[in-house]
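=== RUN LOG ===
request id: a7f3
mode: sequence -> structure
chains: 1
length: 220
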Amino acid sequence: MKVFIMGNRGRMGKLLTDLFNDLGHEVKGFDILDGTTGPDSGEMQQADVILLSIPQGNALQFCLNHPEFKNVVEIGSTKSIMKNLKGKIISIHPLFGPLSYQSINRRKIFFIDDISPEDSIDLIRKLFGDMELITIGYDNHDRLMAEMLVTPYIISLISSRLATGREPMTRSAEVLEQVSLISKLQSPEVMNMSIFLNPYSRSVFENIKSSLETLMGDIQ
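=== RESULT ===
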């Protein structure tokens, strides 16, 4: 397949470029770091797939501005903002990244079946080889990501602010440091989008606040 990756020099873009090359696809791409005025429209027109490895707001704008391109795949971690493009884009969420790709158990992909065209799942199977595809609706996806991504990110950000910077002397302090690494090692842009674009993030904040207030009430 001919694959064009927008954002091919970013962390995820580089990973996907290597992955698709290993799978035998012909991969081209564009990144703002290239310093050129924009991607080659001819290469994009000839591509079997255009994959958007760019900030999700930019991905949404690209889809709105370029309805002429077919088989556009967005990979963001929040899907509700893409719901109005139902049937016009392919929406997936790889559950792996540069830090987790080496784990075989992480090589799974959510396929958003109530946004993506009905027949596009076969294209994604061909694109990603034998990786496991899990079909899910956009709302259920965002609810699940509030639990699986947003909550760990927020707790990690809090842990980062509480870390003392001293060498951990207890197991509990070591665990706190490990939790803080979640946010330290993640791309700030990706993490912020995952938190602030997810419509269920507020409920996560409320649950954390409620838990803290309950603990404070138990202190004599």
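=== NOTES ===
The mean pLDDT is 93.
The first strand starts at residue 2 and ends at 6.
=== END ===
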